[in-house]
Amino acid sequence: MGRTVVVLGGGISGLAASYHLSRAPCPPKVVLVESSERLGGWIRSVRGPNGAIFELGPRGIRPAGALGARTLLLVSELGLDSEVLPVRGDHPAAQNRFLYVGGALHALPTGLRGLLRPSPPFSKPLFWAGLRELTKPRGKEPDETVHSFAQRRLGPES
């Protein structure tokens, strides 16, 4: 009887692990266990009511270095080359980042000025929130949600 490997989670890491295990010289039986109805984890695109597409997770590949080269090789092995849209670093799409909050797009702050002043949707300057995080002692709670962390550090609008 052959080996069986169970991979927990069908996010990008679980999918990549399953793929590489199945391509091993003596591949085991791979069982992928995912708790939700869809694969992909954080990687997901949704279309808004006005037709705009929102990326709800990582949306880019940084092709530099060995890790970037291996990622692009995996993209090629999966036959997804035609899905990749190369964007140069000086292109506005590579430089501008937005958050969709409360039905509106908000540009993420850039430069020192953007870090020192509040910028919607954040009610507190990001620099001071980050500095407070570095100097504040660890809380007594064993865990905290990302939402409560962002709200506590960046204001109720986040």
TrEMBL record:
Pfam families in the cross-refs = Amino_oxidase
Q: Which GO terms describe its molecular function?
A: oxidoreductase activity
Record keyword Flavoprotein present: yes
Q: What is this protein called?
A: Protoporphyrinogen oxidase
Domain called Amine oxidase: residue spans = 12-120
Coiled-coil stretches noted in the UniProt entry, renumbered to this chain: none
Q: Where is the composition biased (Basic and acidic residues)?
A: 137-146
Region Disordered: start and end of each range?
A: 137-158
UniProt keyword terms in alphabetical order: FAD, Flavoprotein
SUPFAM superfamilies, sorted: FAD/NAD(P)-binding domain
